[in-house]
Every structure is written in C-alpha cells, then in structure tokens.
Amino acid sequence: MEYLLFLLLGGVISVLSGFFGVGGGFILTPVLLLIGFAPLEAIATSLFFSIGTSLSGIGAHFRLKNILWKEGAILGVSGMLATQAAKPLVLFLSEKGLDATVIPACYIVLLSYFAFTMFRQGKKTGEQSREGRPSLAGMLLIGFSGGFVSAALGVGGGFIMVPLSIAFLGLQPRKAVGTSLFAVLLIVSTGFLSYASAVEISYLTAILLVAGGLVGSQAGAWLTNFYKNKDISLLLSGLYIATLLSVVFKLVHHNLIGIVLLSLFITYFFFLSLSKIIRKKEAEA
C-alpha cells in the first residue's frame, strides 16, 4: 500500500511539474517534510525525483516547441555552479540542528514573493506578454538564484526561474515553462550528485516517485494547450499560496491541515483541467 501511495504521489506532483515547469521538487519537499522525512533526506529525494520529471517534461515540451535551448543552457550552467555554493550551507545548518526551522522559513519567504509576482503578472498582462530578448546578465543571475535555492531547499529551481523569466526576461509562460525544465535538469543532476555521497536516502522510495512521475509530466505539458498564458500565471500563484500555507502549518505542528490545503488546490486544478478538456471536445464535436 505504501508503495502505491508513493507511485500516486509521484504521478500527481509530476502533472503539476509538467504544467508549471517547476521540476516538482518544490512541491515534493514540503510534502515529504509533512509526512515525516528528515530535511536532508527530503532534499536529496526531491532532487532525484526532479531529474526524472524534468527528463519526461522536456520530451513533451520539445514536441510542443516550448524550449529555448540557448537560454536554458545559460540558466542551467549558472545554476549548476550555484549548487556547489549552497551545499556547505545546508550541511552546516544540519550540523547545528537549524535545518528543520530555517529551510521551511526560507520556503515561506520565497513562496510569498513569487505568489504575489505571478498573481500580478497574470492580472496585468494576460495574453499580451511581450516576447523579449533575454539579457545575458539577467539569465546568469536568475540561473544562479535558481541553482542556489535548488540545492539549499531540494527543489528544481524552476519555481524561481519560471516567474522571474516571465517577469524580467519577457518570456511567454509556455516558453518559460519548457526552457526552465531544461535548465532544471542540469541543476538538479548536479545538486543530487553533490548530496548522494553525504546523505542516506531510500532509493526505492525515490524510484517509485519517479516511476509515477514519468507519465504525469507528459500529461502536465499537454494540459498547457487548454489554458491561456494568464491562466497559467494565476494558477501558478495559487499553487505557491497553497504550498506556502502547508509549510506554515508544518512549522506550527499542524501537518494534517497543511496536507489538506495542498490537496484541495490539487483537486481544484484537476477538476478545472478536466472541465476544459470536456468543453474543448464538445466544441470540436
């Protein structure tokens, strides 16, 4: 039964990963913390999971022509360098017994900012988002930020790079999602390898999560075809808020409430997507 739950969890999170281009780790890490994983084990497991979901999502977005390869490589390489700067900090926090407090607190700050950023972006621009020419300095800075946070919090880095790429590089949400997944693959691979020798994780659990995610990320990328750019931005804001609240309740030892809130958002997303698919099929009939 436990194995089936991890398969299902991997599938659900990877649908969100493929849809939002966030690698899946920023959702999985809080969930693993909520169900009792130690912070370092949750980080390493999430990085491993993000490798699988990113690979699967890249395949889907490649077919949809949503990946800007040069921009993704710049974001990814700068992020890879940043992962090596973050690892010593995380190990230091673990040694001092501060990881269980500092890591969730960092999540709260970042999720608050990006929830507001994507909500404002979705309300302001709609389908009129400009298709900009990203600056090299901007891509390097965003990639480094994504990589540092990836290794520090056990996330893919996409949950930072996607909103920043939309807001400051001028990328359309679909392009930001696909490009981010390519950068995330480079970042999480480096981050995981840096932790693999220092942290003991359950590879069976990690593989089950990835197995469930191989199909889910494909489905998530496909679902972007049923949404407008502004809707993707607004839904991403909602996902950040739900994840933020789950982490807050984790800190005050109300894990069940956090799980329920995150589950409610995910349920809403799947019902909304199903209704859009049905309406489109009816319109084509």
UniProtKB/TrEMBL annotation:
GO terms for cellular component: plasma membrane. It comes from the Bacteria. The keyword Membrane applies. The keyword DNA damage does not apply. It is a multi-pass membrane protein. It is found in: Cell membrane; Membrane. Keywords: Cell membrane, Membrane, Transmembrane, Transmembrane helix. The chain crosses the membrane at residues 6-35, 42-62, 74-93, 100-119, 139-164, 176-195, 201-223, 232-249, 255-274. InterPro entries: TM_pro_TauE-like (IPR002781), TSUP/Inactive_protease-like (IPR051598). Belongs to the 4-toluene sulfonate uptake permease (TSUP) (TC 2.A.102) family. This is Probable membrane transporter protein.
